[in-house]
């Protein structure tokens, strides 16, 4: 039996580990992780399916990964597993004050995407007292990591997976594996010395407002209902490593979201949270074969998903699993040629 190590237990690590178990035979998967849910960046996120902060990731990758995840979410929804996996179907209203507003490329794959007419925009300008230049509506999902991560972990363990709580600082700690898959988010910056990674700080607030079901975004803030709370956001501060709640940010978030949705004055604060989006000039999903102490060691990199880690998760896990399969075939061929 071949042994695969997955480093990381956030949305990317767990979806990847479960996918390898599901699609490949005769493979033992072991996750090594420093933290797990509820202490990953994923747990802070709203789990909202929409490709954002994808930097220079080629649009064809963005579309392929997002589409595959969306397809999976539709299947989960239809199978009746929405409740146990933290999945909600949500109507979305996106409004923009950007003078150069243009329709995003991913609109082609969003469900029920409809661009707002100039009359609709004018109505929202009056309603929200803002100067919107464009906007659109569509239907999406929120897939909450704080619910689906424990669900996936349980599934992973039931299928014979192993989770080891250990920080990995050096590849030599795992050199006895056949394949290593790095799903370490922002930490790859230090672990793999990847200078293309940087944080985009996101502060948000979780409140109780059970009457809200619609996602609303404008250029300054967003309101995203989750199952047991509503998320008010947020900041996007590049290269900012501060993980302490800032009062200024908190006040701005509350003010902007309440302007947009006045009923939020009656909401009850649950908690303020902050996390660092693992942004990279380009999301990294690739296979490299290292030569370590005369052993060919395939490494798969699956990190740097920015503000779209949940949106890309299933799609990237699918392709990472194909890369694991390729890597195992390459090793088999190399071993045969030695005989
Ligand atoms: C405020 C905010 C809101 C967001 N909202 C959304 C959203 O609505 N939709 C969306 O799609 N995305 C959203 N995101 C982005 C999303 O959270 C991330 O892209 C996602 O968490 C990345 O997943 P990951 O598994 O790569 O990293 P993480 O969630 O950071 O997990 C990394 C894992 O690797 C482990 N690890 C790291 N280094 C090591 C090491 N050396 N040894 C062992 N283990 C290690 C960690 O312990 C952890 O388990 C948001 C992010 C923030 C901050």
From TrEMBL:
GO terms for molecular function: D-amino-acid oxidase activity; FAD binding. Its cofactor is FAD. Keywords: FAD, Flavoprotein, Oxidoreductase. InterPro entries: DAO, FAD-dep_OxRdtase. One of its GO terms (biological process) is D-amino acid catabolic process. FAD binds at residues 184, 306-311. It is found in: Peroxisome matrix. D-dopa binds at residues 222, 277, 307. Residues 3-323 form the FAD dependent oxidoreductase domain. It holds the Pfam family DAO. Belongs to the DAMOX/DASOX family. This is LOW QUALITY PROTEIN: D-aspartate oxidase. The gene is LOC108742477.
């Amino acid at each position: 039996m071949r042994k695969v190590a997955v480093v990381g237990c956030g949305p990317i690590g767990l979806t990847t580990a479960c996918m390898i178990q599901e699609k490949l035979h005769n493979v033992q998967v072991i996750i090594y992780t420093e933290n797990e849910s509820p202490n990953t960046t994923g747990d802070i996120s709203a789990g909202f399916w929409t490709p954002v902060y994808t930097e220079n990731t080629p649009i064809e990758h963005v579309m392929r990964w997002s589409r595959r995840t969306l397809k999976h979410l539709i299947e989960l929804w239809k199978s009746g597993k929405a409740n146990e996996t933290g999945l909600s179907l949500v109507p979305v209203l996106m409004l923009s004050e950007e003078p150069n507003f243009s329709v995003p490329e991913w609109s082609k794959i969003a469900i029920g995407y409809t661009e707002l007419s100039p009359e609709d925009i004018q109505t929202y300008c009056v309603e929200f007292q803002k100067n919107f230049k464009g906007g659109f509506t569509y239907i999406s999902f929120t897939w909450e990591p704080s619910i689906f991560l424990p669900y996936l972990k349980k599934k992973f363990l039931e299928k014979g997976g192993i989770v080891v709580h250990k920080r990995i600082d050096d590849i030599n700690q795992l050199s006895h594996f056949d394949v290593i898959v790095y799903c370490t988010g922002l930490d790859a910056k230090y672990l793999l010395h990847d200078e293309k990674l940087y944080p985009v700080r996101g502060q948000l607030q979780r409140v109780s407002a059970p009457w809200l079901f619609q996602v609303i975004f404008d250029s300054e803030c967003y309101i995203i209902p989750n199952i047991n709370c509503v998320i008010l956001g947020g900041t996007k501060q590049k290269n900012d490593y501060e993980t302490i709640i800032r009062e200024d940010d908190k006040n701005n978030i509350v003010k902007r979201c309440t302007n947009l949705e006045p009923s939020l004055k009656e909401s009850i604060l649950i908690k303020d949270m902050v996390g660092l989006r693992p942004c990279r000039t380009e999301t990294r999903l690739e296979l490299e074969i290292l030569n370590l102490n005369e052993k060919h060691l395939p490494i798969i990199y699956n990190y740097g998903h920015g503000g779209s880690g949940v949106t890309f998760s299933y799609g990237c896990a699918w392709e990472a699993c194909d890369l694991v399969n390729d890597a195992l075939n390459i090793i088999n061929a190399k071993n045969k040629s030695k005989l």
